[in-house]
Write a structure and sequence with these properties.
CATH class: Alpha Beta
CATH topology: Beta Polymerase, domain 2
Distance between the termini: 57 Å
CATH architecture: 2-Layer Sandwich
Number of domains: 1
Order of helices and strands: HEEHEEEEHEEEH
Number of strands: 9
Strand content: 25-35%
Radius of gyration: 25 Å
CATH superfamily: NADH:ubiquinone oxidoreductase Nqo5 subunit
Oligomer: single chain
Helix content: 10-25%
Number of helices: 4
Length: 201
């Protein structure tokens, strides 16, 4: 753990709106209430000691058995000090997180992706719409309760000469893949099943 990282930890701990701060795998990890995210980021971007001016990623995390259900995780880099920062904030399905596009314009597509994949809403976002899925897509694919098969099948119809949408129709059910199952091909012998006669050869 570098002295530079420990010094940054002590400085960030002094920020009034930071809930917790610690060092994890050579980066700073900070927890902030969603309502304070803009104030904290403004201080960290243009602070006197540290300037986290590059936003490298925004990710959503789904914990369906927890409340609040979602976490929004931000990653930043301070070029001068070569320090990485992770900020976490929690949000429920009914709540929204303030958009940080006014501070970091590159957050635009990151927030759209989190909205598309998880259904996390960002208030004051300039263009919050789906990014990776189709306009008519239903649901949010990275939520833990989203079905593995999806809900809609998209294909091109030679008869109708257009792309059509149909409910998913699997030819067979999902199976529990087991190497002992006759459907999986070769039956593998376990070491304790080899006979003594075979060992003598």
């Amino acid at each position: 753990m570098s002295a530079n990282l420990e010094a940054a930890l002590e400085v960030i701990k002094q920020l009034s709106k930071v809930q917790s701060c610690k060092i994890v795998f050579d980066l700073l990890e900070v927890e902030v209430d969603k309502d304070n995210i803009l104030d904290v980021l403004s201080e960290l971007k243009d602070g006197d000691h540290y300037q986290f001016r590059q936003l490298t990623d925004i990710a959503g995390v789904d914990y369906p058995n927890k409340f609040p259900r979602f976490e929004v995780v931000y990653h930043f880099l301070d070029f001068k000090q070569n320090i990485r920062l992770r900020i976490k904030t929690k949000v429920s399905e009914e709540e929204s997180v303030p958009s940080i596009t006014a501070i970091y314009p590159c957050a635009n597509w990151y927030e759209r992706e989190a909205f598309d994949m998880y259904g996390i809403n960002f208030t004051d976002h300039p263009d919050l719409r789906r990014l990776l899925t189709d306009y008519n897509f239903e649901g949010h694919p990275l939520r833990k309760d989203f079905p593995l098969t999806g809900t809609v099948e998209v294909r091109y119809s030679d008869i109708e000469k257009k792309v059509i949408y149909e409910p998913v129709n699997l030819q067979q059910d999902f199976r529990n893949f087991d190497v002992q199952s006759p459907w999986e091909g070769t039956k593998y012998e376990k070491p304790n099943e080899i006979s003594e006669g075979d060992n003598e050869q």
